[in-house]
Amino acid sequence: MIFKTILKAFWRYFDVICFVFALVCINFGAFLIFNKIVWITAGLSLALIGWLSEVVIDSKEGGGK
């Protein structure tokens, strides 16, 4: 019963976990290629996460109408 509850919560956030993990891998790969580019990719990743969180909030609230 407890595993069913834990897995249900995990699957609810699975897309977000995969998205964040993909961004971490991209940033790490950029760091391995060229050390200074990691700041640019980290900034872009954080900007993308911030923008997507605003889009999700707006879509849940009805777009501010």
Radius of gyration of CA atoms, rounded to a whole number = 16 Å
Low-confidence stretches: none
Strand content: under 5%
> What characterizes the major β-sheet?
none
Shape by Cα distribution:
flat
The helix-strand sequence is HHH
Class from helix and strand fractions? mainly alpha
Number of strands: 0
Describe this structure in words.
By secondary structure, this protein is mainly alpha-helical. 86% of the residues lie in helices and 0% in strands. It contains 3 helices and no strands. The chain has helices at 2-12, 14-33, 37-61. The chain is flat and about 45 Å long. 2% of the residues are buried. The mean pLDDT is 82.
Topology:
Elements: H1 2-12, H2 14-33, H3 37-61
Helix pairs in contact: 2-3
Please give a handful of descriptors for the protein shown.
3 helices, 65 residues, mainly alpha
Summarize the structure.
The chain has 65 residues and is mainly alpha-helical.
